[in-house]
Give the backbone structure.
Amino acid sequence: MRGSVHRLALPLFASTATTVLGFAPMILLPGPAGDFVGSIAIAVVVMLLWSFVVAVTITPALAGRAMPPKDGGDVLSRGISAGAVARIFAASLRWASPIRCGRWCWH
């Protein structure tokens, strides 16, 4: 789990930083328009930064707790068993996909 968080931290930070930098000029707007738009931009920036913190701390912790590995490997090697829902979803993918790739695409 720790390795996946480390792998994804930089892309998550980069996407957060670019969006925060996109809202920065709105925070710096002068006058009444700046007062109105600036407060909205500050709210967006704060929520983006908080979302980054949650994405690299709380979400991996909850995922590690909700999907503990069982015998036979980790969750990625086993997959998540969803029974009838998975079969219906796989059938809808086969029906909707313009590329007929055979049985190996969706088990």
Notes: Residues 2-69 form one domain.
